[in-house]
Amino acid sequence: MSWFVLYTSARAEKRVEERLVQMGVECYLPIHKVKRIWSDRVKVVEVPLFSSYIFVNCTEHKIRELLLVYGVSRIVFYLGRPAVVRDAEIEAIREFLLLAENREIITNGDEVDIIAGPFETHSGKVIEVNHKWAKLYLEELGAKICVSLLELNKRK
User: Fold this and answer.
1) Which residues pair with 134 in a beta bridge?
2) Which residue, among 90, 151, 93, 86, has the nearest Cα to 122 in the 3D structure?
3) 77-127: pLDDT as tens digits
4) Which of 25, 101, 124, 129 is buried most, with the most CB atoms less than 10 Å from its CB?
5) Do the two domains 2-101 and 111-154 of this chain adopt the same fold?
6) Phi, psi (rounded to 5 degrees) for 98
């Protein structure tokens, strides 16, 4: 048995996972929490780490039968064969999600402490956030700086 990758219909990952579990197929859908901002509220929602992908642990013969599951679009192939994902890679994804789960999501307006780098003992207010960096305003210095998200902790 190996881990294979299935491509699902758009936003059907969770429903496909439910159907596969009902069939007795071992599957893994990596989920993470993201802040979504609407006009009237901010909400933390769970979304798949990889949009439209789900990992299944089965034989190569069984993977072809899973194409009949409603919501499964196709099998992901590599070099003409169904793509195999090593167990170590699945474990690495699980470990990453465990580490990420304990971190606060940082958004505009948050007060943060800088925990590493040249401004380590300072704190500031988040002006802008992108995928890896945050632009902060440090009131005590009257300056704007960019800091890696990995070097920030949200104030409680």
Assistant:
1) 129, 147
2) 151
3) 999 999 999 999 999 999 989 877 767 778 899 999 998 889 998 999 999
4) 124
5) no
6) -65, -40
15-22: list long-range contacts, CB under 8 Å, 24+ apart: 15/71, 16/54, 16/69, 16/70, 16/71, 16/72, 17/54, 19/69, 19/70, 19/71, 20/54, 20/56, 20/66, 20/69
Q: Which CATH number fits domain 2-101: 3.40.440.10, 3.30.70.940, 3.40.50.300, 3.40.50.150?
A: 3.30.70.940
Please tell me the pTM assigned to this model: 0.72
Q: Three-state DSSP class for 139?
A: coil
User: Cα 101 to chain center, whole Å?
Assistant: 10
**Strand, coil or helix: 118:** coil
Which own/partner contact pairs does 140-146 have at CB distance under 8 Å and 24+ positions apart? 145/119
Dihedral sign for Cα 155, 99, 54, 18, please. negative
Which residues on neighbouring strands pair with residue 78, listed in sequence order? 81
Query: Which residues have a Cβ under 8 Å from the Cβ of 145 and sit 6 or more positions away?
Result: 119, 124, 135, 136, 138
Average pLDDT over residues 71-80: 97
